[in-house]
Amino acid sequence: MRIEQLEYLLEINRQSSMKAAAEILHMTPQALSSSIKSLEDELSIKIFHRSNKGISLTQDGKETFQFAELVVNHYYQLLQTLNRDEQLSNNLKGSLALYVAPVFLESIFPAYITKFKGNYPNVTIEIIQRSTRNICEALSQTITDNTLGAIIVPFDGNEILYDYLPKNYPVLSFQILNRNTYYACVPNDSPLARQKTISIKKLLSSYPIVDYCAGNAGTAPLIPLLKAYMPNFQTSLVLSSITVWAEAIQNHMGVGFINSLFVKPDSIIAHQLESLVLLQLKEPLITYNCLVYTQTPSPAVSIFLEQFPKYLPQKNDPSFFKINEK
Fold it and tell me: Which of 121, 132, 114 has the alpha carbon at shortest distance from 92?
């Protein structure tokens, strides 16, 4: 029995397909099947049921899978403990499925993905860009040990809004990346541009909103926070492109709100905000950028998570994260 065979078993089970697993592992289906057959012969068991509908674990296979998951995770933890970075880089294989809200891909994620891929070239990364709501729906239906979701969770000042979590959140793990606020965005020739701060109520009562949203209208995490100040505020446009969104505001089609993550120095779209004036809000609009994953993540997910700086808890963080953050 070799560690590679156990990794192969895990990947085949994730993909429910020998061919798909072979593509991710950069080997032929014949070679992969032969390796699993060798493991089955060594253990004198049948690991997979094979049929026209695909493959699935036998009862013996399920027990072997649990063993493989434990051993593979401990193996990579040992390599990290021994600081054998080069060996870890060469040996780590498999796949990593990232479900990512656009704000992450347009700010901090590209650098982390590039770094991870450079360190672990044998891991195949699939990036699925969706809105937070759509990510939560997908993770509620199915989430495997190689899946990582990056979502934005709104906070109303007392508790998080659970509609922006996967329905199966009690059995998942969370890692906070940032606690964010929002800025109001107005054209640089607007009379409001001369103000340093502004009231949300004043904005919502006087100007239509240009909403930046990757999903359906009204589903952005910001919307329920704004509705707490004015339930029936007017939206003039809903745009999925940050570039078009900025142009619409510059052309006086309305005012916007921007997550503070976008204005950080490592944001790849910070230059697109140069034509706008960002105003601090008198009332707080708070969201949390979070990573969500299974309680037994794959080695690839665990190592990807370790890249991010540790979040320093704040006094008024919601109790949910204090309980559920891993």
Answer: 121
pLDDT above 90: residue 251: yes
Q: What is the largest CA-CA distance in the chain?
A: 78
Cβ count within 10 A of residue 203: 24
Q: Give the whole-number percent of the chain exceeding pLDDT 90.
A: 31
**pLDDT tier at 233 (50, 70, 90 boundaries)?**
confident
Distance CA 154, CA 285 (A): 8
pTM of this structure: 0.72
Q: Is the confidence at residue 87, as pLDDT, over 70?
A: no
Q: Which of 56-65, 213-222, 275-284, 301-310 has the lowest mean pLDDT?
A: 213-222
Q: Is the pLDDT of residue 65 over 80?
A: yes
Is residue 148 a contact partner of residue 99, using CB atoms and an 8 Å limit?
yes
